[in-house]
Amino acid sequence: MTQSLIRIPSHKDIKGQERDVAEFIHHFLLENEIQSQLVPVVDDRPNVIAVIKGDDTGKSIMFNGHTDTVLPYNMTIEPFSGKLENGKIYGRGSVDMKGALASFIITLLAIKRSGFTPGGDIVFTAVIGEEGKSEGTEHLIKSGIKTDAAIVGEPSDYEYAVGHRGLEWFDVTIYGKASHSGKPENGVNAIEHAMTFIQRVKQDLYPVLKKKHAEYMGDSVMNFGTISGGTEQSTVADKCIIRLDRRYIPGETIESVMKEYQDIIDNLHNEDPTFRAKIEITPESLLELYHPPLITSINEPIVSAIRESIRDVIKREPAITRGMGWSDAALLKTYAHIPTIVFGPGDLTLAHTEIEYVEVEDLVKAVDIYCRVVQRFTKLMD
Ligand SMILES: [Zn+2]
User: Fold this and answer.
1) pLDDT in tens, 286-327
2) 310: CA distance to ligand 1 center in Å?
3) Strand, coil or helix: 195
């Protein structure tokens, strides 16, 4: 299944992007008599929503995974062959996260074939766009989806995450005034002002961020990702855009984070009225929902269900992940109020890399773990 999914590319340069892989999953489920529907989200790109009905005596659970991948970029292996060698399956999306999708699908199949009736519904959502604006999971939430818990299958290497940082992308646009480079005093150089802004952020904000830390999430951090400005060498640059990534923790909000930069912009403007800039959320980074931190209490029943199920299989106490990247789990928890954790097969550090792979053993064990979670969690009474 993992190989089949890798062989259907679903990055953003593919027409319809996730459509073909979604149709493949949908038809596979139907052929195996599992209820499934394709739900169009945007531009002919559908989510797959499948259900195995429970007998309404216990709790429902959602398995959530994204069908999109990042581009092949500089992969040094064939990205879409799905080659299996020495127990590893190679290709774009193998670990992020077609391996997890395959594990979810095979879990449904195993439950179906075993004749086990879950206490509550098992809902499988294969969503579009997680590497983009999270259109797929946002659509689920707006359609009112609700289960008693959810597992997002991002790779977690036999650990599980109950929290991760929020993530927002910002554009800081710095305005200058063009003039001929022979008379630079007639202009305002936006590139020089950008340099001043960066220096001030390093001086004033970095020390503040260094003091902010959350136990299961890591430090509050930021990164200057790209900078672009100016038109040509003989013109004073009239505009410069800095794009940055900000990972924030509970206690910080989208407003408080933006204000940190706005304060620096205001201070610089007061010191030098020619300094003019604005900050905004990078327009193509979201639809409507922000990307808050994931905060699920370790006292939630789904947390003990996953912890005990991992322990059954690896024969030791699993660790709680610290510092996992942002995922759709945060949307399900924040906006649909579903206690959500992250657990999936493979090593997260291989995601988006030149030689991406997932180990077959990890896939098989993930199915074992997911099946145990279903048996444990859906049989819980209120
Ligand atoms: Zn992912």
Assistant:
1) 999 999 999 999 999 999 999 999 999 999 999 999 989 999
2) 20
3) helix
Name the architecture of domain 2-164+293-377. 3-Layer(aba) Sandwich (3.40)
Assess whether pLDDT exceeds 90 at residue 135. Answer: yes
Q: Note the pTM of the prediction, 2 decimals.
A: 0.94
- State mean pLDDT over 152-164: 98
Rounded Cα distance, 52 and 379, in Å: 14
DSSP 203: I
Q: What is the pLDDT of residue 311?
A: 98
Cα(265) to centroid(ligand 1), Å: 34
Q: Domain 166-285 maps to which CATH number in 3.40.50.300, 3.90.420.10, 3.30.460.10, 3.30.70.360?
A: 3.30.70.360
Distance 154 CA to ligand 1 centre (A): 5
Distance 380 CA to ligand 1 centre (A): 29
**Rounded to an integer, what distance in angstroms lies between the CA atom of residue 382 and that of residue 379?**
10
Q: How far is the CA of 130 from the centre of ligand 1 (A)?
A: 7
Q: Which backbone phi and psi does 227 adopt, to 5 degrees?
A: -140, 135
Tell me the CA–centroid distance for residue 236 and ligand 1, in Å: 42
